């Protein structure tokens, strides 16, 4: 399962990079247009908001897979290894239920918004919910892998990396 998840992670990383680039370039172009030519690019607000939502929900499963989400582990860390694993797996189940609800809700919203058009772009409003479904589905894969492993992925933050 790990090679498949890693492959999906790499695809999401590319999509995230593209989304952030679109945000930066479109907002920069709008600033130049607004202050340089006294005209605003109408679709930039909606496009940047759409790309921000895509970025947010595509990053979500990557953060889950790397142990980068906020976790309060004070009680868990005080437990012996056996109960610690049970508590961790119970928490993963709760989070997976929330992700499943998010996935189903996103699919419902995609279906309901398909005929609703965006104001400034020739796209359906359902595109705002597509990354929510993708992120929730991929987060479920990461959660399943974590559950199978049974041990919390420890995040490593090294501020001195690369500096001597």
From TrEMBL:
Membrane-protein topology: Multi-pass membrane protein
GO cellular component, one term: plasma membrane
InterPro entries, per database record: DctQ, TRAP_DctQ
Single biological process term from Gene Ontology: C4-dicarboxylate transport
Record's subcellular location: Cell inner membrane
Transmembrane segments: 12-35, 47-65, 86-107, 127-145
UniProt GO MF annotations: transmembrane transporter activity
Residue span, Tripartite ATP-independent periplasmic transporters DctQ component domain: 23-152
Lineage top rank: taxon: Bacteria
Main location: membrane
Keywords of the record: Cell inner membrane, Cell membrane, Membrane, Transmembrane, Transmembrane helix, Transport
Family matches, as Pfam families: DctQ
Keyword GTP-binding part of the UniProt annotation: no
Signal peptide: none
Subunit architecture: The complex comprises the extracytoplasmic solute receptor protein and the two transmembrane proteins.
Purpose of the protein: Part of the tripartite ATP-independent periplasmic (TRAP) transport system.
Family from the record: Belongs to the TRAP transporter small permease family.
Protein name: TRAP transporter small permease protein
Organism: Marinibacterium profundimaris
